[in-house]
Amino acid sequence: MGLAEGAGGGTRGGRLRGCRHQFSTGVANCAGGSRSVQRVARGKLVLEELGVADRAGGRHSDRREALRSAGGQRKTGSYSLTYLSSGISEPKEGFPSFQATGYLNDQAFFHYDSESEKAEPLGPWKQVKGMEDWEELSKFQKARGEFFLKTLKEVMGYYKDTGNHTMPEKLGCKLRNNSYCGAFWTTTYDGRDYIKFDTEIPAWIPLQPEALKTKVKWETEGSVQQTKAYLEGECIQKLRKYLQYSRAFLDRQDPPSVSVTSHVDPGNIRTLKCLASNFYPQPISLYWTQGDSVVETESWGEGPLSENGTYQSWVLLKIPSSDKGPYSCHVQHSSLAQPITVPWNPGH
């Protein structure tokens, strides 16, 4: 029943029963002690942690090493169960007062909202039988939503706020080689981190002065040991159960399709674009070379997970329109036995 086993178990009005919630996207990486997705792309190592991208420069050897590290996570059995929930104080049509989405790694597998009052499977999980009792999960999410919105009103009271305010919340746990390797639980209010749970202490950590009131209230209600037990125990049990039905979706290797195009901008500057599309998992390396030398570039982009469950990414290189190269785009991905190299042909 989703978080019901861990969340429901007899905690009077506690954090878990009324509900703490959900999180999004990525492959578990326990080496750093926090959830992260590593991707090498366009001559940059991109570290996405809790949805926030941070870029660090790296040379060609760094790109290859990081790609091996990122791709190897799946081979060594790293998985995450994450949940993202959100409440708003003044809902309107199309924006429910409460909604929640569950993710396995970066794949959303169910969604619930307070308008439909239904938890429904997403993507390939629509065809999976026996993984979850969706009726029971719907009932549980409804109860969670009611408690969640009550908490939002309490927080608004601490700030003496009125009007429309939002409260997203993220929680989840991670497995590596079938063993627990970390968990997280963070609540945000109006775009700023508000409070988080530290499993090591264990304790709720206020991230805003007003959150001290929430910490005292929750810990007085006895939520610390219950939250720790859920994150380190029942969440992991749920993840192991889900993996019995989901490994084929999470472990698949879809190779990228690669194309190179060019166009001349005003000022006689030619832009070369290398596009990799329809690949999975997400970590990928794209870079340009001129002859045998790697060309560093700051211009790149990437798309979110598409409806067909794959990604796309691209890297741009700007050169004088008179420059005939030679230039080539190189693509490395865990699905490929060998890197793909696509030369730019000035005649096209």
Per DSSP E runs of 2 or more residues, the count of β-strands stands at 19
Helix content: 25-40%
Q: What is the correct CATH architecture of the largest domain?
A: 2-Layer Sandwich
Write down the CATH topology of the largest domain: Murine Class I Major Histocompatibility Complex, H2-DB, Chain A, domain 1
- Broad shape: elongated
Largest sheet: 8 strands, antiparallel
What is the C-alpha radius of gyration, as a whole number of Å? 23 Å
Termini distance?
Answer: 56 Å
Contiguous runs where pLDDT drops below 50 for at least 5 residues: 1-28, 31-75
> Structural class, from secondary structure content?
alpha+beta
Q: CATH superfamily membership of the largest domain, which one? A: MHC class I-like antigen recognition-like
Beta-strand portion reads: 35-45%
Just give the CATH class of the largest domain.
Alpha Beta
Strand order of the largest sheet: 7-6-5-4-8-9-10-11
Helix and strand succession? HHEEEHEEEEHEEEEHHEEEEEEEE
Q: Report mean pLDDT, rounded to a whole number.
A: 82
Keywords: Glycoprotein
GO cellular component, one term: external side of plasma membrane
Family: Belongs to the MHC class I family.
Protein name: Ig-like domain-containing protein
